[in-house]
Design goal:
Blueprint (H helix, E strand, L loop, with lengths): L3 H23 L7 H7 L10 H15 L2 E2 L1 H29 L5 H28 L25 E3 L5 E4 H19 L9 H24 L4 H4 L5 H6 L3 H4 L8 H19 L15 H20 L7 H29 L4 H15 L8 H26 L7 H19 L9 E3 L5 E3 L3 H34 L5 H6 L1 H6 L7
Parallel strand pairs: 1-3
Antiparallel strand pairs: 2-3, 4-5
Helix pairs in contact: 1-2, 1-3, 4-5, 4-6, 4-12, 5-6, 5-7, 6-7, 6-11, 7-11, 7-17, 11-16, 11-17, 12-13, 12-14, 13-14, 13-15, 14-15, 14-16, 15-16, 16-17
Length: 506
Amino acid sequence: MITRDKLRALWRAVRIGGAALVGACALGVMAPDMAFAQEAVTAPVAEAAAPAEVVVEEAVVEEAAAPTVDKGDTAWMLISTVIVLLMIIPGLALFYGGLVRAKNMVSILSQVFVVTAIGMVMWLLVGYSLAFTDGGGLNRFIGGLDKVFLNGVDTTTLVETFSVGISIPELVFVAFQMTFACITAALVLGGVAERVKFSTVVVFAILWPVVVYYPMAHMVWWWGGPNMASDPANAEALAAGAGLIWSFGALDFAGGTVVHINSGVAALVGAILLGSRTGYRKEPMPPHNLTFTVIGAGLLWVGWVGFNAGSNLESNAYAALALINTFVAPAAAALSWTLTEWLTKGKPSLLGLASGAVAGLVAVTPAAGFAGPVGALILGLVAGPICLFACSGLKSWLKYDDSLDVFGIHGIGGIVGAIGTGIVVNPAFGGAGIVDYAAGGVAVYPGIVPQVIAQLKGVAVTLVWSGVGSLIVWVIARGLTGGRVSKEVEAEGVDYAEHGEVAYHS
């Protein structure tokens, strides 16, 4: 198709360069435009042009047509990918490991490890294709099979970032998104810890991403890209080709819906379906090693910078905004959780500080590149007490055994963050606004009511899709493997019975 830029370049060539210059410019355009170039040779010639000018004009056309790949962006994405992996192993593994009882330490470490390994293989085989390709008639909900086994993905293929004309190598994007798929499934394990079978976890790790995670990633993050969005003529096609939640106009910078609400709901469903731990609410089940938990929380916080700022796909000011928000929000949530706990229970706990920080990280995830630092601060302050209530009062009232409070922190914190994003993105509140590519990249905002409604629709779809899909997967996994260990194994500890190992030798 002949673009306006090509038309202007060719007309300028005709006007100042004559037939020879037109011929040179014609070589710089795509094959479908060659017929137009040949017709342009017969146009009137105003004056002759020097050969040097031919080179300049041709270079301009070539630069406009080719996407720019910056080594700084690529380096940043490589680093972000590695530190997101650090979040999972050892970060999440140690965080969860410290929270369980000593007799189940090997069990939870093994489960996080195997889910991560399965997640990487599944992402390569089918996950990337189902999440990030066009799904044809099912495109609103899931991608297609064009890139199974990473078909067509190599060192020459590129993926657009969020700036017009800027790309990164597709392989680094594949690896970055691979870590998201892994950590989301691994987060779910906290809800069923200390009684779920290893074999059940393996079945879950294979089925759940296909049924739940890949469709969710597609619904939230699949769209036509900034180059397509920059042309107002593409508006209708852009909306028609986007994933369902993206088409609502819902914002999710780094996975508030895809990762956190999604994993929180799956953990809650699994906890209810498998039943409570033996002795739950009758005997104490304190964390066995808060040192490990705090080390894990610290590694999560460090890796979360890659998680949030890396989701910008470029090393620029928006990445810096996401980075500072990833510092501010968890700090605020740690303080508000601890202060609330101090006032209501009489003592500020170390576990409360660590849990509050994670709640703040969860809440700021969807808003990381949209909120201003003060908006991130407010999100953290609000999320802390709400998640504390969800992990204590709400859980006690409903009597479900979400062992490590995945729903209370990730599910509830994700909902707070997803809805709050619709408010803190407002430029009037210091937010970055929403990029209008068709208007040259200016920041716009539709208003609090329309944006919050869009966010609520995204949250509602996530709750329903994850709830129904997770129930199906847990039922299948339990039916194939039995679901949970026997009471005798649970009393003895899952470590030795399931793995033939123990974490500690006294």
